[in-house]
Design goal:
Layout lengths: L4 E6 L9 H15 L3 E8 L14 E6 L4 H5 L4 H4 L4 H7 L6 E4 L17 E4 L4 H11 L3 H17 L8 E4 L2 H10 L4 E4 L19 E6 L3 H15 L6 E6 L3 H8 L4 E5 L3 H10 L2 E4 L9 H9 L2 E4 L14 E2 L3 H12 L7 H12 L2 H13 L1
Parallel strand pairs: 1-2, 1-4, 2-3, 4-5, 5-6, 6-7, 8-9, 8-11, 9-10, 11-12, 12-13
Helix pairs in contact: 1-14, 5-6, 8-12
Amino acid sequence: MSEIHLHIVSFNIPYPPNYGGVIDVYYKLKALHSAGVKVHLHCFEYGREIPEDLNKLCYEIYYYKRNTNILSALSYKPYIVSSRKSEDLMNNLLKNDYPILFEGLHTCYFINDKRLSNRLKIYRESNIEHLYYYNLFKSERNLLKRLYFLSAGLKLRIFQRILKYAELMLVVSKSDTEYLQHKFPLNKVVYLPSFHSNDIFTVKSGKGNYVLYHGNLSVPENDQAAVYLIEKVFKDIEIPLIVAGLNPSESLSNLIAKHKNITLIANPDEDTMNKLINDAQINILVTFQATGLKLKLLNTLYRGRYCVVNSKMLAGTNLECLCSIADNPNNLKDKIKLLFDNEFNYSDVELRKKVLSENYSNQANLNKLIGFLTR
């Protein structure tokens, strides 16, 4: 078989793989490298150092500065898109005729450019972005931020039409797949779950002595979920809760400090986070957005004991049989009290292995992706 080359345009530097979309990008790179695919990686850099680790996985790498000036903010295009416009990127894409995979709507500024009209263009979805921003608007308390999220959501809803220029859309959840198939009936829209770090199960038998909530705490949705759990669930039960994640706000830190049974672990490294997930009696995950695939849910099912979630966390995943579901504070309290004193039955892991291997295998998803590149 002749060599396969692929351009991947990433919205950020995908290392370290410690939040949402960059996890999918990084482990996709690892999978493609293992299959001998020559990846030409294009990264927009902001707030992350350029790592050596990516050089081992890619044929070549280009880095571009985001245009975070006022002109990007005032553009009629969404800021997350206009700030990632780069003629250097376009010039590098035009050096050959290899397929191009655009990671997220963020990177799609050039997807309708006539200079790329003869190329295979693939859109990798991670969220229905305008719905995501509309939910941020609903959950944000700061007026200026609310206005920004509302404006961004409206721009993204309009800009989404550009996806008709993608020959193929690879979508992370079944519910998002149905949405895009409805919106773009003439395009090929395929369900392809996120790549992730787990190829083996590391779930412990026995019993833990705390409940864990984890996530990127700088994301308003995750901050809101942590506050919800603290104020509605854990403030009047004595069961210990650990809240762990990146860049917690001062207000969240101050709220946690008021509760003796709640502990904050800020900016844990990957090993520490995985140990927290492994050792917890219960991993609790709630979200107020039913779009995308929550990668922390997958990580928890591969590594943790009991998993308590709300229904929106499971939207489009087919993972209901692996979790305990509760959609209001009283039900969450009841589930937590019921499971906290139980010995975890390791035989439950066999069901996880069956369900996850059928739907979320990195190798199976790699084979599908390579099949699209070689047709």
